[in-house]
Amino acid sequence: MSNNIRKIAVLTSGGDAPGMNAAIRSVVRTCAYHKVECVGIYRGYQGMIEGDFKEMNARSVNNIINRGGTILKSARSMDFRTPEGREKAYRHLRDHNIDAFVVIGGDGSFTGAMIFSESFDFPVMGIPGTIDNDIYGTSFTLGYDTALNTVVEAIDKIRDTAISHNRLFFVEVMGRDAGHIALNTGVGAGAEEILIPEENLGLERLLESMERSRLSGKSSSIVVVAEGDKIGKSVFELKEYVEDNLPDYDVRVTVLGHIQRGGRPTCFDRVLASRMGVKAVESLLEGKSNYMVGLAKDEIILTPLDQAVKGKSEINRELLRVSDIMTT
Length: 328
Ligand code: F6P
What we know:
- This protein has 328 residues and is of the alpha/beta class.
- The chain has helices at residues 20-33, 44-50, 83-95, 107-120, 144-165, 180-188, 203-215, 235-245, 267-285, 305-310, 317-326, and strands spanning 7-12, 37-41, 53-56, 100-105, 124-128, 167-173, 193-195, 221-226, 250-255, 291-296, 299-304.
- The longest helix has 22 residues, at 144-165.
- The structure holds 6-O-phosphono-beta-D-fructofuranose.
């Protein structure tokens, strides 16, 4: 391991995700294991600009592996997008003798890390933490698995009341511009239809699908709608549209919202976070920089940050086909 890096900082940035605490814990404990100092930065890049730092050791991260959210708090910083903001952040890092940082966040956070690293020749490493799973270079982002389980549990409950009242429910889930959460939870919860931005079903086909479902003997239905779906209507307008065109249906809407971002991380997310933290710190100690750690075929791999930012995380076409067959 390299001797150049003696102190590593860790921060969480962008939307929080279950598993971020487990990743912080892993970074801090890997530093302790290798006898490297570790500093936590509060409130993401904004805290870096304001010097909101705290020395951390193996005991600072006791009992957080099971906790949702992030003990370091998170923020989306506009100031870090300016050269002046990044300059201030750099001065604080130098004043604290910090040699490298690990940022846990999404693609916006990685873009910031890349620009920073290039401007100041500063070693950085990214850990993908977002419930959206929309990052190239990893088959799972931290928090995604937990969010899937939260959503499926909620839809199971909605299903109970939908059956009791013979209703159609539109359930809107998060995911920003990506349909990963919707597609996976739609299949997992046995939805009658799934609307995702990557596949524009169209209003006509949605009506046909609902009618087919009713004529085949189903008396209640769940349609999972990704928040970024481009069918052209909000989920509430969709409800009105279906009610206007299929008056036999009694329709309700549930927007799951930020409930999807909280909660205790699943075992999968905790283990993934632990593996990613070790890889991020050890890669920095080996002299590597400007990479994101990711999971591919159960191996922890590195992808250059610019590829992680520019690349597109494709929707699983095989799962799309499975969903078509299951909604027959
Ligand atoms: O990126 C995570 C995410 O939860 C998206 O799914 C959603 O579009 C967005 O963040 C919501 O952001 P905010 O918490 O700032 O409203």
